[in-house]
Amino acid sequence: MSETATATPPVTGTDTSNPKDHKRQQTDAEGEDEPNNTPSQAAKKQRTDTPANTEEEAEPQQQQQQQQETARDKDKQNNDAAASPRSAEIEIEADAAEDKGSRHSMEDAWVVLPDATLEDFPANLRCAHFAIYDGHGGRLAAEYAQKHLHRNVILAGLPRELLDVKVAKKAILDGFRKTDESILQESASGGWQDGATAVCVWVLGQKVFIANIGDAKAVLARSPAADGLQTHTDEVSPLKAIVLTREHKAIYPHERARVLKAGGTIGANGRLQGRLEVSRAFGDRQFKKVGVSSIPDIHSFDLTDREHFIILGCDGLWGVFGPSDAVEFVQKLLKEGLTATALSRRLVREAVRERRCKDNCTAIVIVFRQK
Length: 371
Known about the structure:
Pfam family, one: PP2C
Shape: globular
CATH superfamily: PPM-type phosphatase domain
Protein name: PPM-type phosphatase domain-containing protein
GO molecular function: protein serine/threonine phosphatase activity
Number of strands: 13
Number of helices: 7
CATH topology: Phosphatase 2c, domain 1
CATH class: Alpha Beta
Helix content: 25-40%
Region (Disordered): 1-91
Organism: Turnera subulata
Largest sheet: 7 strands, antiparallel
Distance between the termini: 39 Å
């Protein structure tokens, strides 16, 4: 059985399970954000027209209403500021680990970029990017996405100065589409039919965006509202595990309907055309006309002192770890003072050596630390 491999950020994963032989490759793409849940803005107020006999009677009522609205807006701004600390006060530490398990080869690829700013795309907005690409049928699609998705999202217009939620979402969608189109062209000319699922994270300023296709998952560890900065103390409450992604498999109703509408079939084994387990992926050229899509689900949230870490994992990891189980495992090690490198390595080692994961196993642990 292979040893768990890790890398020091910013690097991208390569095909090996031995840390000493693990070749590192710098990605040439920059991280992005994609907010789903935009910060709440002051609600638009509707002015009610009350009958008034004279202008003198209406004017005091309007002035009083305006004063009340102003007071409410100020209170809301203060509450928002208290709930969402500035991103500069939160540091990001992350690393990846991988093991090929019982498989003959490693088909996963990954990206760890705590600082994902590109030289040819200068920016004032803090940007970090992390991703796992789980290949099937080979690793060519995973490697292509590893090298090109991030840059494609930036070229599609990812905000780099001022965060715009709608613009960021569109950039991620367009980046996924462009990457898949290029993979299909490459696979057609090269005569290969590999596919890859993906789970990606972008941190822009204090906003975190998650995009996924397939069955790779992202799980957030969040503390109760009252715990705040007590994350690393012995008295800390158990962190809540929040699954940030949605699996895309043909057996699920929302995917089944889409696949059948596209002309695909679902076999008795629950697989698309009786062969492919996932219904969304990069590549898979032979399945694109029967329902396989590369359109990601995108979610977002504000980064506060309640968010402690995110675990990204391929399906091999989540086959032996439940979300709450993984969060509890990492939280205990985090309380012992372990680094993100050690956390990811221990997580994968536990999955493969102790819990007998037979599949390729890759994990990224992203830790948020208060300055």
